[in-house]
Specification:
Layout: H1 2-24, E1 29-37, E2 43-45, E3 52-57, E4 62-70, E5 76-77, E6 83-90, E7 93-99, E8 104-112, E9 116-121, E10 126-131
Antiparallel strand pairs: 1-2, 1-3, 1-10, 3-4, 4-5, 4-6, 6-7, 7-8, 8-9, 9-10
Length: 138
């Protein structure tokens, strides 16, 4: 009986970890901020953002985030600056550890799906991103 319980427990633990890692692949791509929820639970909605975030995360859970500015012709302008990142699964949480030559910080991924990412920083600000869709000017 103890062996069965231990086996079931291992299946649940490793099954959940695989699902979390599978969802991380959704982060890759272009994202724009939809809203920010402040620590007091008030919300600020964004109907338009001048910049969007580009995330790239590889199978080793290492990657970068870069600020991009969409151009009217469908291309992007950006600087060479990027924030290196590493994602770690810790205590059933997905944490992003960022580093630049000037700073290091941590954020927690609360939700990641094909259409949305929700990230909370250490100041309890919650950023809800939606997948970027280019403006169609006809």
């Amino acid at each position: 009986m103890k062996k069965i319980i231990a086996l079931l427990l291992l299946m649940v633990v490793f099954g959940c970890a695989d699902n979390l890692e599978d969802n991380i692949s959704y982060m890759n791509g272009y994202w724009e901020i939809k809203e920010v929820t402040l620590a007091d639970c008030s919300k600020r909605e964004y109907t338009f953002s001048e910049t969007i975030d580009f995330f790239e995360v590889n199978d080793s859970l290492i990657g970068f985030r870069k600020k991009m500015k969409p151009n009217f012709d469908g291309t992007f302008s950006t600087s060479e600056n990027a924030e290196a990142l590493q994602i770690k699964i810790e205590n059933d949480s997905l944490n992003i550890y960022y580093s630049t030559p000037y700073s290091k910080w941590k954020e927690t991924i609360l939700d990641v799906s094909e259409d949305q990412i929700v990230i909370q920083n250490q100041a309890k600000l919650r950023y809800t991103y939606k997948r970027y869709e280019p403006l169609e000017l006809n």
